[in-house]
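target protein:
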Amino acid sequence: MPPASRPARLREILAGDRCLTAASLFDPMSARIADDIGFEVGVIGGSVASMAVLGDPDLILLTLTELAGQAHRVCRAGRLCVIVDADHGYGNALNVMRTVQELQSAGVAGLTIEDTLLPRAHGASGQAGLVGIEEGAGKMRAALQARAEAADRAGMRAEGGVVIFGRTSAAAISGVDDAIRRLLAYQDAGVDALFVPGLKERAELDRIAAAVHLPIVLGGCHERLAEADYLSSRNVKIWLAGHQAFAAAVQAVHATLTDVRAGVPPSRLKNIAPTPLMTKLTRAADFDRWTGEYLDPSH
């Protein structure tokens, strides 16, 4: 699927009547694997992007340029509809506009803008904070304006651009009542869908789904919510269990390098991807064909 058509496909998914499971993506190979398995939607989380690019925790150390570059590489590698966690938009509402421009140019299908107070202030406790609802809604409007301007420059309809998700973690920080107030404000601002992370109980989702009418995406919520028919009945269109794939990859690399350092011969290393799988995922056959067509003087 070419990048230009992916936002349209994501809109079809959000308008559909079933809930899809999203793949957690962090680099081109994870996107290629998810595509090969058959996922239609992938999510680049801010935390795994920071760890994959910098090897650092999710403390808003990753820059917008670095995120957009990684998103471009991920989108190039697969055909999925990629949704990017754009955190708080890397600053105020004007920074949000720049964030939308860069990520849309990178080829993403959708992006989330959240109302978390980031980065945390000096001396802040472990509890995350939130910006005011008015400021949060202003960021959503700025995101939509940036999309409209990009569409105008490209000669296309504004609604054909990147899908904008209004996101709040208020349910886990200040309670479901506040989460609903914020989601309603972002819905009124005109976002395309709502992204809600961290829910633990069905009762929380029940209340949110009853209050809003936009499609919902859940991220990192408790697995007891993860029943497809139930989620579909609550207008949840996409579900992301978390970013376990990255943790699994870290464990695999750590175990393999530990064995290598201990002198285990290559033939005895465990859980090594077989050559046919590596050949398939790296598209070796395509490159062999292109080499013959464009580099072999006998052709």
